[in-house]
């Protein structure tokens, strides 16, 4: 359990630095002498670094000891936070954020593989859940705390605190991770890495991931104006609603881990359908504050409960050549986030309004149900079993 806690601390650090920029964006824009929309590229640039640089760095480092690589990525994070705190202008800040994002993308891919290798097969879902919870807890605790620090002592102080957190994560992994954590002693060829992506369980899971992001971020990107304009909430109440959503997400991560270890595909299919229903409910109750808040809390819980078995399934079915596939998990999520936000913008620009966003999400979830059912039936009929890890062969 202690090695997983060490991996969680670094996941929490990476998650916080990705999302906290939104909380201090006006201060960063003012401090670097750019407009707030221009400063917004610090968000999209980070997502691009994860999506593109993460898989490339993972493949380039596949022969390095996993422990050494994870500690090195945490060190890159730590140095990057100090450099961001000292950044003299916007261009350097953007480049530094992208560099940290590349380490972020590689870290989550490698950490997921190491985490499932540290536990029994029937504990894989909870191992994935613990790493993934670093992102949800960063939203519940890290982002509000980092934003408060920025408001009190300035945005550069936020990055210095992130730097200190990076030092803690380096120490934790150095002490707590076993020396042999599934290091790539048995090199797997690039061709093998690519071939495992052709397994239907892998590419269908990536489709499910994309649908999940449309169901989540198509609405979440515009959740604040939806709550203000459609639900009629006071602006001061919006952070509390987002906090409830984050609490629901944190609970959902661990619930999803339990269900992934119990009956992965039946649980996943059921939760996808429940999410479709939840999004339809959000559309129906969006003008009514109390039911809307309840629905948003459930929606946040289901989103992350669904994410855990999807990632567990990808890792299970690529165990014999996991480097590329595992790095595609954070990349896929960030590509999905970008596409969902763009789709939401297109819907709004076409004049459909905020209430159309959960409808689109519900349709995406129903598509996901159909894909998951087809995949599960195909797998059941052929009685296929997951591959053994490369090191065990």
From TrEMBL:
Gene Ontology terms, MF aspect: transmembrane transporter activity
InterPro entries assigned to the protein according to its UniProt record, in alphabetical order: MFS, MFS_dom, MFS_Efflux_Transporters, MFS_trans_sf
Transmembrane regions: 38-57, 69-88, 94-119, 126-145, 157-177, 202-225, 237-256, 268-286, 292-310, 331-352, 358-378
Membrane-topology annotation of the record: Multi-pass membrane protein
Record has Cell membrane as a keyword: yes
Domain of life: Bacteria
Keywords carried by this UniProt record: Cell membrane, Membrane, Transmembrane, Transmembrane helix
Keyword Lipoprotein: no
CC annotations in GO: plasma membrane
Record-linked Pfam families: MFS_1 (PF07690)
Gene3D superfamilies: MFS general substrate transporter like domains
Protein location: Cell membrane
Major facilitator superfamily (MFS) profile domain residues: 3-379
Name this polypeptide is given: MFS transporter
